[in-house]
Specification:
The chain is of the alpha/beta class and 211 residues long. The protein is built from six helices and seven strands; from the N terminus they run E-H-E-H-E-E-H-E-E-H-E-H-H. Strands 1, 2, 3, 4, 5, 6 and 7 form a seven-stranded mixed β-sheet that branches. Helix 3 crosses helix 4. The chain is globular and about 50 Å long. The C terminus is likely disordered.
């Protein structure tokens, strides 16, 4: 496993170590006032034979948290994993334009599930939550999908689209957690942090009041 510690994100001393280099997860964690450092975990993300999608995302999130925690236990480690599921199968990150277009056309005009598992590893143990959302994309043409690929956005996104980016124009309906579809469900994340005694909204208000 390769790891690399980057600078602190947010005001004040870091409360957690985020096991992800995703700018979206960093932004979301900053949104709820949780200063953090980043140490990504690079693991084999190959699904196991017969593994259910919800088991897959929970296993990977837990593995990421524990891998980083084993390297540096100075802070609680927060990890997450997101997958798009259609017809009961996982849609990962497209390897090239052809795969991205095929993936988007498969999702187009129908509803799919987005599963995001979030895990917090502390001295007290490992706790986790699973967020499940449903997203419906409008019908898409092959030309639209190709044009979207040329924006550069789909290449590192599960399912080949970003709900918070250019891909937002494809989203007809979303039921569940918008932040979960982005990659870090904030309700579930806040529940884990509060259960571990970690305060949110650092620096919020005139006296830095936080729940």
């Amino acid at each position: 496993m390769e790891t690399g510690l980057t600078h602190t994100h947010g005001a004040g001393a870091p409360l957690v170590c985020l096991a992800s280099m995703s700018p979206r997860r960093r932004e979301l964690l900053g949104q709820i006032g949780v200063p953090h450092v980043v140490r990504p975990a690079h693991l084999d993300e190959t699904p196991r034979r017969g593994e259910a999608p919800q088991d897959y995302v929970q296993r990977l999130a837990r593995a990421k948290a524990l891998a980083v925690r084993a390297v540096d236990a100075a802070l609680p480690v927060l990890a997450a994993d997101t997958s798009v599921v259609v017809d009961g199968t996982l849609c990962g990150k497209p390897a090239d334009e052809a795969e991205a277009i095929d993936m988007l056309l498969r999702l187009a005009g129908r509803t799919h599930r987005v599963l995001t598992a979030v895990v917090l590893a502390t001295d007290a143990g490992v706790d986790g939550r699973l967020s499940a959302s449903e997203v419906r994309l409008r019908p898409l043409s092959r030309a639209e999908c190709a044009a979207y690929w040329r924006t550069g956005e789909p290449c590192d996104k599960a399912g080949g689209y970003a709900v918070q980016g250019f891909g937002a124009v494809f989203v007809e309906h979303l039921s569940g957690s918008y932040s979960g579809v982005m990659g870090l469900p904030l309700y579930e994340t806040a529940e884990l942090l509060r259960a571990a005694g970690l305060r949110l909204w650092q620096g919020a208000g005139p006296a830095g009041a936080a729940p």
